[in-house]
Amino acid sequence: MTQLEIFIKNFSGDNFEDYSHENGFTYWYASDLMNLLGYENMTSFQRAINKAMTTCNTLNIPILDNFFQEQRIIDNKSIMDFRLSRFACYLTVMNADSKKNAVAMAQSYFATLAGAVQNYLEEANKVERLVIRDEISERETSLSGVVHKAGVENYPFFQNAGYRGLYNKNISQLKMIRNIPTNKSLLDFMGKEELAANLFRITQTELKIKQDNIKGQQKLENTAENVGKKVRQTMKDISGILPEQLPKHEDIKTVKQQLKAKSKQIKELDSKKKKKS
User: CB-hemisphere CA count at 13 Å for 51?
Assistant: First the structure.
């Protein structure tokens, strides 16, 4: 069994550190991290990197400071690789497939860096929440543009119709039940499963409107509500849990602050190691 095979079988922080490089800052090659986490090719691993870059951008942390693309020659083949900072590795690992044993071990290792976290899955969920929440913001902007062109004059009414279909309750009722301030977004207090359901609702509503060329405020509201109802029924059929029964989560803005603090703490780790060496 090769050293790489042993590492994949039993991820350890020491082995991860062995793959680091120094050139003005500490970094790891994405191709090395890919292998260490048990991925077979860069195509599948690229999804985790893309999500990590999205998370970095959402946190307003410079992407180029953490993800640097580089052309490399490996085994006489030219490949496009990335130099990943320690924080970029952290984000990539947290966005990777936790069903892989090596990924689960790596997530556990990174979750305890710069401050202990009892549950590494909770840490990964926070990062994933941030990615989905950011995607919802983009899709909501797109949907808003589509429905305004299609004749929506009162967007809050249209938006409320979608929530009413999914939750069988209005936005104001949901905020009251979950004790969420009226000036806050419901989405900011949802877990990843609930966020994913709303992302699906929003994208399918936009698709339905475009495909059927639906026009006018009332017809568009009806469409948003009907799509919401179908997503609600799907959730009920699959899990037996209705969306309003899902738990309230920590404000996503607090999660952002925690991850920003984590990035500083992780950066300080490399600074301390350089001083020791």
Answer: 22
Residues 248, 150 share a domain: yes
In the chain, pLDDT over 70 holds for what percent of residues? 90
Residue 120, pLDDT > 80, answer: no
d(CA 164, CA 153): 19
- CB within 8 Å of 255: residues ≥ 6 apart: 126, 129, 130
Q: What is the pLDDT of residues 55-82, one digit of tens each?
A: 999 999 999 999 999 988 877 888 889 9
The residue among 120, 119, 105 whose CA lies nearest residue 37 is: 105
The alpha-helical segments, DSSP class H, found in the chain are 3-9, 13-18, 30-36, 42-58, 86-94, 101-111, 120-149, 155-167, 171-177, 192-212, 217-239, 252-276
Which residues, including other chains, have CB under 8 Å from residue 220's CB and lie 6 or more apart?
A: 147, 150, 151, 152, 158, 209, 214
155 and 92 fall within a common domain: no
Residues 144 and 189 placed together within one structural domain of the fold: yes
How many Cβ atoms from other residues are within 10 Å of residue 175's Cβ?
A: 18
d(CA 41, CA 172): 47
Query: What domain range is 62 assigned to?
Result: 3-111
Tell me the three state secondary structure of residue 71. strand
Q: Is 58 within the bounds of a domain?
A: yes
Rounded to an integer, the average pLDDT of 241-270 is: 90
167 and 235 together in one domain: yes
- 210 shares a domain with 184: yes
Look at residue 77 and tell me if it is in a domain: yes
Q: Are residues 34 and 150 in the same domain?
A: no
Q: Is residue 263 part of a domain?
A: no
Averaged over 240-267, what is the pLDDT?
92
